[in-house]
# Entry
Amino acid sequence: MLLLLAVAACSSTAGSGVTSTKKLNQLSADERNQLCAYRVDIEHAPRTVTCGTNPSVTLKDKASCLAGLATVSLQCEADVANAEACYQAIADDPCAFGVGTCTPLFTCVLPSQLGGPSLAD
# Structure
């Protein structure tokens, strides 16, 4: 029994509940759904944020996120931990677009394809 608890405590799940080391191109439909639900929750999306002198940023809905994750190529090296770190960075400062933190994710999918920030006119 103790061994089972120790193994469970050491499993690599992220804030979304999806294994953090799993590559985005290997996610099942249920895992993509879980990850996008996490993104919408943490970013309080959908919503639009005004960015001072910059244009406003629109954080899109779960359907947009799901559509974006469905387009991830086999060459994508980003994993769930990369996506979650990006989502957290965007939640912390939507106007910064997760600069730096989101690079692994954005090399696979454009922010607008994931339901992430897009500039509004």
User: Anything to note?
Assistant: Residues 1-11 have pLDDT under 50 and may be disordered. Helices lie at 2-10, 29-43, 62-69, 80-92, 103-106.
